[in-house]
Design brief:
Layout: H1 3-14, H2 32-51, E1 60-65, E2 70-77, E3 80-88, E4 110-114, E5 119-120, E6 128-130, H3 136-140, E7 149-151, E8 160-161, H4 164-179, E9 185-190, H5 196-201, H6 208-224, E10 229-233, E11 236-240
Helix pairs in contact: 2-4
Length: about 240
């Protein structure tokens, strides 16, 4: 057996990164730009994380609040998640309510998951993270569109746009968590923070069912500080407590 073939088999059986063949257990895309950004922001992030008893590369949970223009980065610490940092959203598109069709210029709402393949280290918006729209719920309900991102450059047509310094930190934390073994990062996108008062204010909105599901997940996380399990059945979201 040739040396190169032996190396390929070693990569397959060990399920670890193999530089010679480019095979890895968790292949995270990168570019010269993303490597330079991460090298620059990692020391600052590590220092801030250490002050809160958190670790660079810990699993993430992300919440977005459209009306408040806020993105929260939560990180696992022992058996619970702790809030690390809140970032201002520079711009989003449309109004309150989910994205329904291609071209409606709405920023999405709902439950999404980000895997390694959804990182875009060469985005024309500096760096970007594809939210995974349309998800299973969107598809079964006939919703259309694609390439809905959290990205930099502070401009939006259906995306959640951050400042460049903001997306650099968000991207670096996501990259680290996925490289450390998190399969997918939950991104829960809310129209607003679903307090009882806000839900009463918007009780006559056409999206009350979706927003009710989002509130169920929000309340479950607030009580347990662990993201709930979300699935889709019969065209509806199903929210269950974490295992």
């Amino acid at each position: 057996m040739s040396l190169s073939r032996t190396r390929r088999w070693l990569c397959i059986f060990s399920l670890v990164s193999c530089i010679t063949t480019g095979v890895s257990a968790q292949s995270v895309p990168e570019s010269q730009r993303s490597r330079a950004v991460i090298a620059r922001v990692r020391p600052r992030l590590t220092a801030a994380l250490t002050q809160k008893g958190l670790s660079f590369g810990a699993p993430l949970y992300v919440r977005v609040f459209k009306q408040e223009r806020l993105l929260e980065m939560w990180m696992r610490h022992d058996d619970r998640y702790e809030l690390f940092k809140t970032y201002p959203i520079c711009a989003y598109s449309g109004e309150l309510g989910p994205k329904v069709r291609q071209g409606d210029q709405q920023s999405p709402e709902g439950f999404y998951r980000v895997s390694a393949a959804q990182l875009h280290p060469l985005s024309r918006f500096h760096l970007s993270i594809d939210l995974g729209y349309p998800n299973a719920y969107d598809r079964v309900n006939g919703r259309t569109g694609n390439a809905l991102m959290v990205h930099g450059n502070c401009v939006s047509v259906g995306c959640y746009a951050m400042t460049d310094p903001g997306i650099e930190e968000i991207y670096a934390l996501a990259d680290a968590a996925l490289r450390a073994g998190q399969t997918a990062i939950p991104f829960h996108l809310f129209p607003f923070r679903p307090t009882e008062q806000n839900m009463r204010t918007h009780r006559d909105a056409r999206w009350d069912r979706l927003w009710g599901d989002l509130k169920t997940a929000y309340d479950m996380f607030e009580q347990r500080r662990v993201p709930p399990r979300v699935s889709v059945r019969g065209g509806e979201y199903v929210i269950n407590p974490p295992t």
